[in-house]
């Protein structure tokens, strides 16, 4: 991919709870220079970041708690709504895996419905923490995420494992399956350990094995703080 194509799919990310205003300004300056699709930060940094960010760059906010998702429907409602109120164009929200035999179940479906309802029409990206899941669980939870109305399914937070080629292929297969069944096109966000162009090219090649048109539809994103183009 050429640099302009990478910028089109890049969610440029700064998720550091101890970040300083100086670091946020530097981050915005880099974002303004490279022109990513979005910048991705915590809600408490939204107002400050927006004051320095070029208007054409979308603001993605990561709903708390992060990187461990909430078990409380009330908390999910509150935190996703806060992200909306802070001016999010897009919201990334963790669906926490559970080590139980029936995962995913009605518990996860209830959380997903609340995420969708509380996001108030914003682009919703649900983080599934694929590195923590077996293949059966991963496929089942992706299907539930997509059926519940999320716009993107995101591989992980990056805090509990990297995104692999195998995960990327499963994500692409399930998004294509959803399209065949429902007629809806949904998106994929890959995140976790994507630090070099080699890492990026490997994952995009895996996606292309299944769907070569996903980027043209605007439905592939890469979450990283390391790749600057």
Explain how this protein is built.
It is a single chain. The chain is an alpha/beta fold. It has a single domain, classed as TIM Barrel, CATH 3.20.20.70. The protein is 43% helix and 16% strand. An 8-stranded parallel β-barrel has the order 1-2-3-4-5-6-7-8, surrounded by 6 helices. Helix 4 runs parallel beside helix 5 and helix 6 crosses helix 7. It starts with a helix and ends in a 5-residue tail after the last strand. The model has no long low-confidence stretch (mean pLDDT 96).
Radius of gyration: 16 Å
The top level CATH class name: Alpha Beta
| Main sheet characteristics | 8 strands, parallel, barrel
Annotation, overall tally of beta strands: 8
Give the strand content.
Answer: 15-25%
The share of residues in helices is 40-55%
Name of the CATH superfamily: Aldolase class I
Along the chain, the helix and strand elements come as HEHEHEHEHEHEHEHE
How many independent structural domains?
1
Apparent shape: globular
**Second rung of CATH, namely the architecture:** Alpha-Beta Barrel
What is the tally of helical segments? 8
Record the strand order, biggest sheet: 1-2-3-4-5-6-7-8
> Helix- and strand-based class?
alpha/beta
**CATH topology assignment:** TIM Barrel
The end-to-end distance, rounded to whole angstroms, is 11 Å
Low-confidence runs of at least 5 consecutive residues? none
Mean pLDDT: 96
